[in-house]
Amino acid sequence: MPDAVRPTVLILGGFLTAPPVYRPLTRRLLARGAAGVVVANVWTPDWLIASWRGTAAIATRSGVALRRAIEVSRACSGGAPVLIVGHSAGGITARLLTAPEPFPGRRFGATAHVGAIVSLGTPHRLAAGAGIGRRLNEVAAEIAAEHVPGAFFAPRISYVSVASSAVVAGRRSGRGRLATLMYEFVIGRAAVPGTEGDGVVPVAATRLDGARHVLLERALHSPTAGGAWYGSDEEVDEWWPIALEAWREALAARASGAPDAPETTAAAPNGLAARTATV
């Protein structure tokens, strides 16, 4: 029964992060009932390379981490599909792992192994203008939108989008001025004084069509921002129960014979199953 299973969690880090920054989040998820936690082995230099060569290598490294999480799930969660927590750009990477062929010659198609995708401050919607928004669009977000738009594999995969309204764009404070600049990079001219977000990604950019939307009030974008962030204790207490419920609903949908998600057509070279399957 889904209610009796504890999930194995895969954490996919955000742009310019490194695995050590997610150690406290790992401990907090284990303390709240995760059966096991795997953090993708993606480091800051990998993101720097990806900013000009594209994110195919990031997705491949994340696919290796997913294989490890699948092994942990077999040992700790009865082989149940993994619950992915993607921070920032890691939420886009999570969606790419479910796509049949997001990059030429690279098929992940991991729908059979993913029960939920929980994105924390992920810019699912980006501007087409200048700056980091345009570059992220080119290397990741546009690819995800083309191959796996919105909550593409629901209900067999549940989607939860977590955002924060902690920082309001404006000119009255240093943090507000910096937020204005960052929000403009992400959503372009749509960023105006009063735009709410987590200091880096505005709420509007996190809205993935068909996902459950969770809005926090005090979470900053980064674990190194000098305050509470998505992985802090009180914030995890807000979104984790929702994530867990969504993951269990996906398991129940599979068990009840919900229609299969669109099928991928070939075996993935990284060893992930290319066809959807029930738990």
Protein model, in words:
With 279 residues, the chain is of the alpha/beta class. It has a domain of 195 residues: Rossmann fold. It is built from 7 helices and 8 strands, in the order βαβααβαβαββαββα. β3, α4 and β4 form a beta-alpha-beta unit. The longest helix has 23 residues.
What is shown here, in short?
Helix 3 (56-76) crosses helix 4. The chain is built from 7 helices and 8 strands; from the N terminus they run E-H-E-H-H-E-H-E-H-E-E-H-E-E-H.
Outline the fold blueprint:
Blueprint: E1 8-12, H1 23-31, E2 36-39, H2 44-53, H3 56-76, E3 82-87, H4 89-97, E4 114-120, H5 132-147, E5 158-164, E6 167-168, H6 174-187, E7 196-197, E8 212-216, H7 233-255
Parallel strand pairs: 1-2, 1-3, 3-4, 4-5, 5-8
Antiparallel strand pairs: 6-7
Helix pairs in contact: 3-4, 4-5
CATH class of the domain at 2-161 and 221-255: Alpha Beta
What is the molecular shape? globular
| Helix and strand pattern | EHEHHEHEHEEHEEH
What name is given to the CATH topology of the domain at 2-161 and 221-255? Rossmann fold
Strand order of the largest sheet: 2-1-3-4-5-8
Features:
single chain; 279 residues; Rossmann fold; two-stranded antiparallel ribbon
